[in-house]
């Protein structure tokens, strides 16, 4: 079983940047895609970005495209989300997750505990 631990959240002014990390331990991640999600009122978690652990193919939600960059570092078994030009509407708890290549949070098998990002206006 894979365990995921997020870090890097905080309070930043609008226009600022943060880098979130998700450290993975346990089983190999080679069969997974890794995603970042955030809560959406009345819905399943909103897709933010994802990457295949092998190959590094990426996808982004339209709302973050051009501002956020997802990446992974094999040697550290760690997933990252570089968040630039942050907006108040990006305020949320951000979760990393491991699962199939999907935009749907309900299909992901393993979740971290989340890290809070707050963007002040």
Write the layout of secondary structure elements.
Blueprint: E1 2-7, E2 10-13, E3 18-26, E4 33-38, E5 46-52, E6 58-60, E7 68-73, E8 78-83, E9 92-99, E10 110-111, E11 115-120
Parallel strand pairs: 2-11
Antiparallel strand pairs: 1-3, 3-8, 4-5, 4-9, 5-6, 7-8, 9-10, 9-11
Structure characteristics:
single chain; seven-stranded mixed beta sheet
Describe the model:
- The protein has strands at residues 2-7, 10-13, 18-26, 33-38, 46-52, 58-60, 68-73, 78-83, 92-99, 110-111, 115-120.
- The protein is mainly β and 121 residues long.
- Strands 2, 4, 5, 6, 9, 10 and 11 form a 7-stranded mixed beta sheet that branches. The protein has a 4-stranded antiparallel beta sheet with strand order 1-3-8-7, with no helix packed on it.
- A hairpin with a 5-residue loop joins strand 5 and strand 6 (58-60).
- It is globular and about 40 Å long.
- The N and C termini lie far apart (40 Å).
The averaged pLDDT comes out at: 95
Instruction: State the shape.
Output: globular
Give the % helix: under 10%
Ranges where pLDDT stays below 50 over 5 or more residues in a row are none
> Termini, distance in Å?
40 Å
Order of helices and strands: EEEEEEEEEEE
Oligomer: single chain
Secondary structure tally: strands: 11
Estimated radius of gyration: 13 Å
The largest sheet, given as strand count, sense and whether it forms a barrel, is: 7 strands, mixed
Count up the helices.
0
Instruction: Determine the structural class based on helices, strands and strand pairing.
Output: mainly beta
How much of the polypeptide forms β-strand, as a percent range?
Answer: over 45%
